[in-house]
UniProtKB/TrEMBL annotation, chain A:
It comes from Solidesulfovibrio magneticus str. Maddingley MBC34. One of its GO terms (molecular function) is transmembrane transporter activity. Pfam families: BPD_transp_1 (PF00528). It is a multi-pass membrane protein. This is Amine acid ABC transporter, permease protein, 3-TM region, His/Glu/Gln/Arg/opine family. SUPFAM superfamilies: MetI-like (SSF161098). It comes from the Bacteria. It is found in: Cell inner membrane; Cell membrane. The keyword S-adenosyl-L-methionine does not apply. Its main location: membrane. One of its GO terms (biological process) is amino acid transport. The keyword Cell wall biogenesis/degradation does not apply. Residues 22-220 form the ABC transmembrane type-1 domain.
TrEMBL record, chain B:
The lineage of its organism: Bacteria, Pseudomonadati, Thermodesulfobacteriota, Desulfovibrionia, Desulfovibrionales. It comes from the Bacteria. Keywords: Amino-acid transport, ATP-binding, Cell membrane, Membrane, Nucleotide-binding, Transport. It holds the Pfam family ABC_tran. It is a peripheral membrane protein. Residues 7-242 form the ABC transporter domain. This is ABC-type polar amino acid transport system, ATPase component. GO terms for cellular component: plasma membrane. It is found in: Cell membrane.
């Protein structure tokens, strides 16, 4: 029992260190969501409006990143591709051996696959008349998609997008495997010295829960802010 | 009348899913004229209209606007054609995320390249013309069906189209809202807007139309002045179709052959 108390004490003292991991976790999430969004939107557009070959290529990308476990991708990237690239003198100015960079790329590429399907669904759910009306006014498809289709589709996508956020948040814990000092990594390293993983696991769980809650709260607020006047709230997620 | 021909449609054929929707359709519209397409559902009226601006490109045939043939192969020509051909849809197709003002303004900015102030002025003018200047900040979901359709007319007119295509503009409206849209259309006809309209509002359009085109199974089977086609003893398909509609509606609006347009 005495051992437990001293372990709890040590855990308590390690709090600031573990909380410091929140910055890395937040960095992973924001980076990955951004990469996923920036790639996911054009992928979705190509998936819906592209020619057959383009559509197949996008579908292939989606299958690949949905099908390979994130842990495997992290190893392939960190120990494989990035390790190889970091040997090249021409690229020596880039922080290629950073686990953080590998993790953001892997989580971002995976999220792009999922986000593209979220946006694709949202675009497909818009009435066909929207694009027709835009074309009838003389808009090119590029302009129509940018000014008419995406502003509506992205609004519709927010609830599913907040779901993607909460999944990605927990996937980000895998980054500890390649040495990123995020919340999970710090929890494990403290647990290795106290030999009492239980209080630390509870703490880590609480932190992830808090981040999920805060993120979804923010996205709900965004959803309300960009709501189109006159429409009822869409869903209650 | 020697008005110049604005729109010429020649030998249009369109097949969708193995079925021939349009079978060698030809007609032309002179400047300031109104042609009205009548006929049962599935006759090809909507498809014909969307072939004219290549929303649904014809398989063969020619569309000429102002004497210039457009085949839809050149993207630039196609976009230019669509700029000059306005379209009004049965279900309005207003952009749901934009206010009434922005619905009218968006193409002025994005297609015509007007600066924001000029676009705003023009858009407000067009909204005023359809009687909706005071609704400019409202969104489509806050407007009635009749108001939505009037915004869509303003949106089309703001582009200064040479021809306006109207695809059953009142068919999706509650009966008490049809009048306000018909009034706008009548004003346009009086102002000399060149139009092609598919509609079931036969008695209304008889008073305005220069010619009725009666379509059935993808062909124009009758054409002529409304008064001539609607004469009770004409024995025309148009007359019997109209009689059937009015019998269903119980308003007897085919009883009197309307006066030709002054």
């Amino acid at each position: 029992m005495e051992g437990f108390y001293s372990a709890a004490q040590a855990s308590w003292e390690a709090m600031p260190y573990i909380l410091g991991g929140l910055w890395w976790t937040a960095g992973l999430i924001i980076g990955a969501m951004l990469v996923g969004f920036i790639l996911g939107v054009p992928l979705a557009v190509l998936h819906v409006y592209g020619r057959t070959l383009t559509r197949k290529a996008v579908a292939g990308y989606v299958w690949l990143f949905r099908g390979v476990p994130i842990l495997v991708q992290l190893y392939l990237f960190y120990f494989g591709i990035m390790a190889y690239l970091s040997e090249l003198p021409a690229l020596s100015f880039l922080p290629l051996s950073s686990g953080f960079l590998s993790a953001v790329i892997v989580l971002g590429l995976t999220s792009a696959a999922y986000q593209s399907q979220i946006f694709r669904g949202a675009m497909a759910s818009l009435p066909a008349g929207q694009l027709k009306a835009a074309r009838a006014l003389g808009m090119s498809d590029a302009v129509a998609i940018r000014s008419i289709i995406l502003p509506q589709a992205l609004r519709l996508a927010i609830p599913a997008w907040s779901n993607e956020y909460s999944i990605l948040l927990k996937d980000s814990a895998l980054a500890f495997t390649i040495g990123v000092l995020e919340v999970m990594a710090r929890t494990r390293s403290v647990a290795a010295t106290t030999h009492q993983p239980l209080p630390l696991s509870i703490l880590a769980g609480a932190l992830f829960f808090f981040l999920t809650w805060a993120g979804i709260k923010i996205l709900k607020r965004l959803e309300a802010k960009v709501r189109i006047p006159g429409y009822a709230h869409q869903g209650s997620l | 009348m020697d008005d110049p021909v604005i729109l010429r449609v020649e030998n249009i054929v369109k097949t969708i899913g193995g079925q021939r929707i349009l079978d060698d359709v030809s007609f032309s519209v002179k400047k300031g004229h109104l042609k009205v397409l009548i006929g049962p559902s599935g006759a090809g009226k909507s498809t014909l209209l969307s072939c004219i601006n290549f929303l649904s490109p014809p398989d063969s045939g020619t569309i000429s606007l102002d004497g210039k043939a457009v085949d839809g192969k050149s993207r630039k020509e196609l976009l230019a054609l669509r700029q000059q051909v306005g379209m009004i849809f049965q279900d309005f197709n207003l952009f749901d995320h934009l206010s009434a003002l922005d619905n009218v303004r968006v193409a002025l900015v994005k297609v015509k390249g007007l600066d924001k102030r000029a676009a705003t002025n023009r858009a407000m003018e067009e909204l005023a013309r359809v009687g909706l200047a005071d609704k400019s900040t409202l969104y489509p979901a806050q407007l009635s069906g009749g108001q939505k359709q009037r915004v869509s007319v303003a949106r089309a007119l703001a582009m200064d189209p040479k021809v306006l295509l109207l695809d059953e503009p009142t068919s999706a409206l509650d009966p008490e809202l049809i009048g306000e849209v018909l009034t706008v259309i009548r004003d346009l006809a009086d102002l000399g807007m060149t139009m092609v309209m598919a509609t079931h509002q036969i008695s209304f359009s008889a008073a305005l139309a220069d010619e009725f085109l009666f379509m059935e199974r993808g062909r124009i089977v009758e054409r002529g002045a409304p008064s001539q086609l609607l004469a009770r003893d004409s024995g025309s398909r148009t007359q019997s179709f109209c009689a059937k509609l009015s019998e269903l509606a119980g308003d007897g609006h085919c009883e009197i052959a309307p006066a030709p347009r002054a």
